[in-house]
Each structure stands twice: as structure tokens, then as C-alpha cells.
Amino acid sequence: MSAVVIAVALSLVSAVAYAAAAVAQERLASRSRGAGTLRLLGTGAWWWSVGLNASAALLHVVALRYGPLTVVQPLGALTLVAAVPMGARLAGRRVSAVEWRGTALTLLGLGALLVTASGPAPDDVLSVPEALTVAGATAALIGVLSRPGARPGLRHASASGLASGVASALTQTVTVAATDRSGPVLSVQVIGVALLVAAFAAGGLLLSQTAYRGGLGGPLAMVTLSNPLAAAVIGLSLLGERLQGGPAGMLLALAGAGLASWGVVLLTRAAPTASPVDHDRPVNDDQPVNADRPVDADRPVDDDHPVAAVLALEPGSAAAEPVLVPRPHEPGHLAPATR
């Protein structure tokens, strides 16, 4: 079995594990609204989701050991592909035509990229000066994109994708350097680059959370696309990775990137239409308030969105809490007991 096949297989399992972990976290969050952190720590489902996330991250790291960045990073979009049937299943509906089209375009684009980017197992690593240069340039670019006063959205999403892509490139350097047996496992290069990995990974997570304040679709697509782009630039320019097929392979890779990008955009923006609300129906004030539905009925509900339902990132998708209003009563008299 070739190294690229191993990397692709590990990336596939990693994407499914990431999607399953997000499903578990979303379901737990929907059942435990208002629960504190300590209560979640005592929940077995939460620890299952943590284990799935950790397993997915470990599989991704191992995949970076066997496959080039130009192969492993684009396969991260398969998390969205896996999220579509999972989200539809949980919502009790069928996958829509737009979602099928987005899935097909993403898979076709990734297939074209795999044909042109397939290469031997990585054996080159970033030197300490190269790693510091990449980290410094990326940090400066992130500072420009996320400067104070900038509205959260596509800029912060781009910065998050760059940080995550650079973190993966540096992770590959750590993995290859620690396993090539040409030097000590805990060398200065391994420890120093590992610290950079931690910094960029944490920064990418915080930036993505900021980006999603303005909505899910556009920022999530930008994160998903800028991540492999940053990793590919590092792999092609510094790690000696090459596209197969010459000029024809370059055109095929560009076409595949375009197809995959459009598929990702469709997957992150394809939301089912909310059922219309009958505003002429009288409201019975004696009916108990349903805490599982948002109070604002004029706003479309995106809980069935295949990605929002899985990742639980759409602002306003959480149910609103009912407002408790005391019953008026005359002075000196007790209010009647509520049922």
C-alpha cells in the first residue's frame, strides 16, 4: 500500500470522526442548555465527543506523516461532506438537491486534486529559520486581517484558515523530524516548532469563533478554503512538493480547486426553507411556553441546516428562554397558584 493511499484513508476516517464529534457536541448542547462546565464534565457523552475529536486530530497528524500537505489538507473539506447526511438524519429529513450538488462538486474537485498532488511520503521539513520566517509572516498577515475595528466575518475567517493551515504545515515538520530517527526526538527544532503549532492552532480556533458571530455560511467556507491554500503554498514553495502532469496537471489542479471551492460554498449555505408561520392563528395565553422554539417566529429557523445543526455555530439557532412575568394581583391578596 502506497504512502498516499494510507494518507487518504486516514484523512477520510479523520473527517468522519470530526463530523461525528460535532454531532455529539451539538446534541449534548441542545439537551443541556444552561448547564455549567462542571456538569458537562460529568457527562459521558461529552467525554465521547472529546475522545472523537482527539482521535480525529491524531489521525490527521499521522496522515501528515504519510502524505504531502497538498493532499491531506484539502481532504479536510470531507468533514462538511460527512456532516450533510448526519445533519439530515438528525433533522429527520432528506438531503436536498442543492446539498447533493455541493457534495458531488466537492468530491469531484478533491478527486482532481488527488490525481495531480499525489506524491511520495514527505521527507523534507522546515528548518528553524524557515519555520520562524513562516510564523512571522503569517502572524503579520493575521494581524492585518484581524486588526482592531475590523468587522468579524470574512477577514477573521481568512485569518483563522491561514493560522490553521500553517499549524498543519508545522505539525508535519514536527512529525517527520520526530520520526526520521536522524536525531533526538526532543530536539530544539521539534520543541520550538511544536510551540508554534500550539500557538497557531489556538489562534485559529479563537479567530474562527470571532468570525462566526456574523453568520455561518461565508466565514465557514472561507475557513475551509484558506486552510488548504496556506498549507499548499508552504508545501510547494518550501517543502519540495510538486504537482504531477506538468502544465496539464496544473490546469487540472486549478479546475479541481475551483469545483471543490464551489461545492464547499454550496454545502455551507444550503439551508432548508423554514415552514411558514400562520400569523392569523390566535394565540392561547393559557398554553405553556415551548422552550424548544425561538420566540421570534419571523426569523427563519436554521436548526435543520446540515452544517449548522452539526457544528452549532449559527447565531440565533439556540432556543430562546421563556420570559417569566409575575401575575398582577391586588394588594393584600395572594396570587392564584399556577399549574
Properties at a glance:
single chain, 339 residues, mainly alpha, 12 helices, globular
Topology:
Layout (H helix, E strand, L loop, with lengths): L2 H29 L5 H5 L2 H23 L2 H4 L5 H14 L5 H21 L10 H18 L8 H26 L8 H24 L5 H22 L7 H24 L38 H4 L28
Helix pairs in contact: 1-3, 1-5, 3-8, 5-6, 6-11, 7-8, 7-9, 8-9, 8-10, 10-11
Task: Describe this protein's structure.
The protein is 63% helix and 0% strand. The model is unreliable at 273-306 and 308-321 (pLDDT under 50). The protein has 339 residues and is mainly α.
Mean pLDDT equals 75
Binned, the helix content reads 55-70%
Strand tally, please?
A: 0
Instruction: Give the H and E element order.
Output: HHHHHHHHHHHH
Rough shape? globular
The stretches of 5 or more residues where confidence is low (pLDDT under 50) are: 273-306, 308-321
Which percent range describes the beta-strand content?
A: under 5%
Enumerate how many helices there are, as a single number.
Answer: 12
Helices and strands: which structural class?
Answer: mainly alpha
Gyration radius over CA: 24 Å
Describe the sheet with the most strands: none
State the end-to-end CA separation: 67 Å
Summarize the structure.
The protein is mainly α and 339 residues long. It has helices spanning 3-31, 37-41, 44-66, 69-72, 78-91, 97-117, 128-145, 154-179, 188-211, 217-238, 246-269, 308-311. 63% of the residues lie in helices and 0% in strands.
